[in-house]
Design a protein that fits this description.
five-stranded parallel beta sheet, 5 strands, Ribose 5-phosphate Isomerase B, Chain: A, globular, alpha/beta
Length: about 150
């Protein structure tokens, strides 16, 4: 499994901890920045992570900013991305199982490290159900991009 990850300055420290956690489990991680805690703009980090996922270079993407809100909105502006802002493991499971989310967003100033790692593990460890009703709903969501 390959995960693309990106964060602004507000998510930089959590990003480092997530990378360490994933690599300890044998997951390959593509670090798309930021590479230090200097102030940067979160919309700049969504495109490289999302492009890696959409191209197949990465299986999933993880985006982190202070709240997760701005970076998730940025990601969802990119055609083909289904980014879920996550704050609990149940939502992480449902985002994958029902919505086939391909990118997740986290708020570093909202979540503790332990919960964030549990959310990451749940998200990447849950498969899409492929139920017809979920596939139909996802198609309707994706069709909204064309309107």
């Amino acid at each position: 499994m390959i995960i693309a990850i990106g964060a602004d300055h507000g998510g930089f420290e959590l990003k480092k901890q997530i990378i360490s956690h994933l690599e300890s489990k044998g997951v390959k991680v593509l670090d798309m920045g930021a590479y230090d805690a200097q102030s940067v703009d979160y919309p700049d980090y969504a495109p490289p992570v999302c492009r890696a996922v959409l191209s197949g270079e990465a299986d999933y993407g993880i985006l982190i900013c202070g709240t997760g809100i701005g970076i998730s909105i940025s990601a969802n502006k990119i055609e083909g991305v289904r980014c879920a802002l996550l704050g609990d493991t149940f939502s992480a499971k449902m985002a994958r199982e029902h919505n086939d989310a391909n990118v997740m967003a986290l708020g570093a100033r909202v979540l503790g490290v332990g919960l964030a790692l549990e959310i990451v593990d749940t998200f990447i460890g849950t498969d899409f159900s492929h139920d017809d009703r979920h596939s139909r709903r996802i198609q309707k969501m994706m069709d909204l991009e064309k309107r």
